[in-house]
Amino acid sequence: MKTIIAACSQNLSGSRASLHAALRTLLAVPWPSQRDVRAWLQLLAVLQWVLSFLLLGPVTLVLLVYLVFTRFWPISALYLAWVIFDWDTPEKGGRRLPCLRRWSVWRHFRDYFPVKVQNWLVKTHDLSPGHNYIIGSHPHGILCVGAFCNFITGSTGFSELFPGIRPFLTTLAGNFRLPLFREYLMSGARVAPAIGLCPVTRRAIGHLLSKNGTGNAVAIVIGGAAESLSCSPGVTTLILKNRKGFVRMALQHGAFLVPSFSFGENELFRQVVFEEGSWMRAVQQRFQKMMGFAPCVFYGRGLTSVRSRGFLPYARPITTVVGEPVTVPKIEEPSSEVVDLYHGMYVRSLLKLFNDNKTKYGLSEGDELRIV
Question: What percentage of the chain carries pLDDT values higher than 70?
Answer without folding.
Answer: 83
